[in-house]
Design brief:
The complex is a heterodimer. Chain A is α/β, with parallel strands linked by helices. Helices cover 22% and strands 18% of the residues of chain A. The chains are: A alpha/beta, B alpha/beta.
């Protein structure tokens, strides 16, 4: 395997996202999700055989449409679709157990995978320091999605905290739950309640991950993920001539 | 929200939802969320209260003068909102002849009998997106809008926008 040399956190995260997709999967991601959007198009370019449903109603849109902005609500995830399938239908599909992956994000998370999307800080829910973008979609999808995967482009102790005060959603005990950051991958195994450090990216160390995570990490001996291959990097460049992948990493 | 609107459209007081387990939202808003046992088994389900908006204001690409509307791009939950609301006001990029609907009735997303009023308003979804008429958000206008909201000057902002002075 020929590995690429010219890559950074953005490419590594996108590649980690791509590698989560298995042939036959039905995959969805949320609003304002430039990182998974570019990764999905690249996964299609790499020939992965999966179904990609989007918030803009499109089903398997033409992955060659380059994203022009970081929004995931534009024509580029709609044009060239083979069918339309609305968000209400996507929720139904996942609730009936037919959806494989939902790529979602968060404002904060704790070791139980409890996610803050609605509010942060302040006195209470009605008087927060920060009101988030909503997150009822996450609350609906996380418990019913076969493999919920959280992507978060910041890895620091403000994001990964000891305890989330108000959890918009939390992982189902009977399902796997994965978190992809710019440094590593955490996984919650089926039947367990806590996240474990699963693997780290080639440019970091367990110590760096520990220093930037607000909960205790017991794992010491973890896999170092393979760097992006030349083919993966080429696919990312091909589908994203406008560099939308880097929007979250500015 | 979708399930709440569905309950509204179906004329029933609440609706069970798939998911929602583990969310603190359920306990926080008992006036909107309740957990109940299935009458047919032991499963527990989260239920949401029906939502019946007084008005749904929806922007479409094409409507005739009677309120038959076609949504040519992504339709999101617009048709559902039209069925859940007490009254519907349409704004449309253009008024078309009813023959357009008769050519392909299946493409009519909202039928006239749900609609109270139709307003011809080209560019009505700006500074947002209306596929395929305008495809990207006008961020400068959006920032001006946010500023107007904070300054409590939305009517002045709207006047400027309508007069093309933005």
């Amino acid at each position: 395997m020929e590995y690429g040399k010219d890559y950074g956190k953005a490419e590594m995260m996108a590649v980690a996202i791509i590698r989560e997709i298995q042939d036959g999967d039905i995959v969805f991601h949320g609003l304002a999700s430039s990182t998974p959007m570019v990764a999905m198009k690249a996964a299609k370019a790499l020939g992965k055989d999966f179904t990609y449903v989007t918030l803009s109603d499109g089903v398997d849109h033409d992955w060659q449409n380059p994203p022009k902005v970081a929004s995931t609500l534009t024509a580029n995830t709609y044009e060239g679709s083979v069918a339309t399938f609305g968000l209400d239908e996507i929720f139904d599909l996942y609730a009936s157990g037919k959806g494989d992956i939902a790529f979602l994000s968060c404002l904060q998370m704790d070791k139980s995978g409890r996610i803050a999307m609605s509010v942060l800080g302040g006195k209470d829910y009605d008087h927060p320091k920060l009101r988030g973008p909503g997150g009822a979609g996450s609350a609906t999808l996380t418990p019913v999605t076969k493999r919920t995967i959280i992507w978060k482009t910041q890895h620091d102790t403000r994001t990964f905290v000891p305890h989330v005060q108000f959890a918009t959603t939390a992982p189902a005990v009977d399902k796997p739950f994965t978190v992809i950051t710019p440094l590593c991958i955490f996984r919650k195994p089926v039947g367990e309640k806590l996240l474990k450090l699963d693997s780290i990216f080639p440019y970091t160390t367990v110590d760096e991950v520990k220093a930037n995570t607000g909960w205790e990490i017991e794992e010491t001996d973890v896999t170092v993920l393979d760097p992006p291959t030349e083919a993966e990097l080429k696919a990312l460049k091909k589908v994203d001539p406008n560099g939308i992948l880097y929007y979250e990493f500015k | 929200m979708i399930h709440a609107l569905r309950a509204g459209a179906y004329g029933i007081p609440f609706m069970p939802v798939g998911g929602m387990w583990g969310s603190d939202l359920v306990a926080l808003r008992p006036e909107f969320f309740q957990v109940m046992k299935s009458p047919f088994g032991d499963e527990e389900v989260v239920c949401v209260k029906a939502l019946v908006p007084d008005y749904a204001i929806l922007h479409v690409q094409e409507a005739d003068v009677y309120g038959n509307a076609r949504i040519l791009g992504p339709s999101y939950q617009d048709a559902l909102m039209a069925r859940a609301a007490k009254k519907v006001i349409l704004t449309t990029e253009r008024i078309v002849g009813t023959y357009r609907m008769q050519e392909e009735p299946k493409l009519t997303a909202i039928p006239h009998f749900l609609v109270e009023a139709v307003v011809e308003l080209p560019g009505g979804a700006k500074h947002g997106i209306c596929y395929p008429e305008y495809l990207t958000v006008d961020w400068d206008a959006h920032k001006a809008y946010q500023k107007a909201v904070k300054a409590d000057e939305v009517p002045q902002f709207a006047a400027k926008m309508l007069e093309g002075r933005l």
